[in-house]
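Our collaborator T.R. sent over the components below with a one-line note: 'Predict the complex.' Nothing else. No constraints on interfaces, no templates requested, no preferences about which chain binds where. So this is a plain run: every listed entity goes in together, and whatever single assembly comes back becomes the starting point for the next discussion.
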Amino acid sequence: MIYADNAGTTKMSKAAIDTMFRLVNDTWGNASSLYSVGQTSKEVLEQAREDIANLIGAEPKEIIFTSGGSEADNQAILTAARIGASKGKKHIISSAFEHHAVLHTLERLKDDGFEITLLDVHEDGLVRPEELENAIREDTCLVTIMYANNEIGTVQPISKLGEICKKHDVLFHTDAVQAIGHIPVNVNDDNIDMLSASAHKFHGPKGVGFLYVKKGIRVTNLINGGAQEKGRRAGTENVPGIAAMAVALKEAVKCLSKTIEDVSKKRDRLIEGLSKIDHSALNGDAIQRLPGNVNFCFEGIEGESLILLLDDKGIMASSGSACTSGSLDPSHVLLAIGRVHDVAHGSLRLTINEETTNEDVDEIISKVAEEVAYLRSFSPIWRDLVAGKKEFIL
Amino acid sequence: MALYSEKVMDHFRNPRNVGVIEDADGIGEVGNAKCGDIMKMYLKIDNDIISDVKFETFGCGSAIASSSMATELIKGKPISEAMELTNKAVAEALDGLPDYKMHCSVLAEEAIKSALDDYHSKQGK
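Returned assembly:
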């Protein structure tokens, strides 16, 4: 079995599992309770907060634990929107290929009179800093741009974007769900005011994440209730999950430079191998991308079929085809980088990690080539392309 | 629970009647690449009986399985019976399709009807 969908989710690390198991057993007290069993939980919780803060260059009080990346994105955007609205500033800048947790939240804000500008991400999947600067207006209250894209893995010039926001005194949020634990992230170096993260993308548990909010920013809470998280997120804390997240992130960051070097090499080997398939193309910039992300379009085939056939061969991957999303449109990310529908349906995302071997990479290349050829053998589109009745796009 | 029934997976993995009939009596093509599904059906007809049928499909697992099943359901049958084939019958023969995949069975029905229309219009000439 070759698992190549690490952008979808990762397997928990042994250390994270051990931590979670141990704490479920030993540290079951409510962190808000005054007696010792509760206070032990409180200590574990605050240690996790401190550890996570240290790993991203933040202060512990700037970390709010959430149920994951989507909640953190919602909270960050609504926080900035409320601050903006109180000053009569109702313009938000984002990018065309953000995660739906961001795009759908922005869509809802339109009903409240907010105006949204989505920056072009160009063919290479990268935002241009000068275009951000040109888009900033007097009434802009927030810029929210993802650190790295979840489908095509392109990594934005975050530090530069943050600098521009700082210069214009506009809040800057980044959805760093795909970046944290995979590439270096530091909220100070990167000029970030708010940042979202999710544990299960870096070998931590599902249902846990965090939002970094720079001190001084008045946070809007989404969940009202008790005084947990300093009144910024009510609900009894998931102490075992949060501690496991901290352990997983510590592990990921510890050997980050070695992992990046190692995984990038395998990624490039995979890209090179898949490029040999006729009428295929890599999606997104080849260099400014996450170490483990490979995303291709293959002309004349449909992605879901390819995923199912690869699964039969023991390879787990994903696609941005409409059929995998349950809608008629293919991935908004692929459309945003200018892939036309016909080609976007034939996409394949492979996200490898430090456990992927060179043998795995070679196996993926040979199986993908085999299955693409098989699906093309009875594709009416492919027949027309080969016969010259239609022109190849790729 | 699996995404698809065993039968869908069987017809997807081992599609029946895949290919082209060079001297087909009727050809139908439905769907478009923009939506991610295209089905092409080739019919050979002798004495109002569908003596042979082949298909080519660009599409998802259920689109391929629906095409395959539809060809099985009409092969060797009289035209009148093939005209009656519904998408529901295709889906039922596959032990059901997820709701959002029902359009694949609709495409299969339309592809066959389109091929039969093509046959009839050629006959009329």
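Summary for T.R.: The first strand of chain B starts at residue 26 and ends at 32.
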